[in-house]
Amino acid sequence: MNEMPLVTVVIATKDRHDDLAATVRDLCRQDYPSLEMLVIDDGSASSVVQIVKYCWPEARVIRHEDSRGQSARRNEGFRLATGKYILQLDDDCSLVAADTIAMSVGYMEATPSCAGIKYFIWVGKEMPRELDTSHILSGNCLSYVGAAVFLRRAALEDTAGYRDFFVSYGEEEELCLQFLKRGWRISYRPELIAHHRYSSQNRNNSSAWGRALRNNIWSIMIHCPLLRLPLEIGWKVALGAWDAFRLQRWRRFVEALAQTLRGASEMLKLRDPLDPLSLRRYDAFRAYQVLPYSVFENPPIQKWADFKHWAKRWPNRNRDSSFYSKRKDIGCEEVPHART
After folding, report:
1. Counted domains in the chain
2. Whole-number CA gyration radius for the chain
3. Is residue 154 domain-shared with residue 216, that is, in the same domain?
4. What pTM, to 2 d.p., does this model score?
């Protein structure tokens, strides 16, 4: 058993003691024996050491008195991890099946070009009794949801990791663009399921929305080819303005743009635009979300039909409900469309 690749579980946490305890308890059900537990406390009001050690005595718990955000703390976990693979989990997210880690390791061992596995994530307080994901196509995808993802440490070491200054929101997408440019792929495996309880503690949707807008524009500045910069930034700002109206977040919108401008010179210093092959893959992902492996290897130049497919899907994207809408949620993030 000791010859099995070591997997390091990295959990960055802050002030969610009950959720953290539930997540660590659930991890004890995993049937994969070669695990290292690493918990980074990002300035919780009280220590989480006893909570973690009670469930997992061998765990390493790193406590910080100050808060620097999940990007910095996850990066710290990556640096301290000794496993060949890293399971990144939010403190309010658990793996559903006991063999999830074992199946993840098996897939990664058989697919050396894979940087990470995107799980199907069920969001809600309780899991349904039966959840069938067999109708959802697997394949390559552009990014993942940071609540639960299985990563190859060698691929992470091939990048700059998360950008600490992003703090949170949008950091996963930016990291995946780094993977994309280096030839790594993210695989979507919907048969591997995680349950994101989505704790209401320590969340501020308004500030998170503004930070995501800022980070998305910064990511464009870093990775977008020069000729497309005006179009891509203009679209993102226009969409942000529309969302500011829908969500009545004008102050956050102005703050986000101001922060974006203040950091623009630093982003331009980091510029590393997508090469032509990576750009074709990026465009294909935006249209279809999931690409078969053959299409990923040789992505076609996008045609009018691909744009129409994106335009048809875009109104049903996952987003916050408008002030004038009675719907509490719009869109479904976890049922992607695949290009065949």
Report:
1. 2
2. 20
3. no
4. 0.91
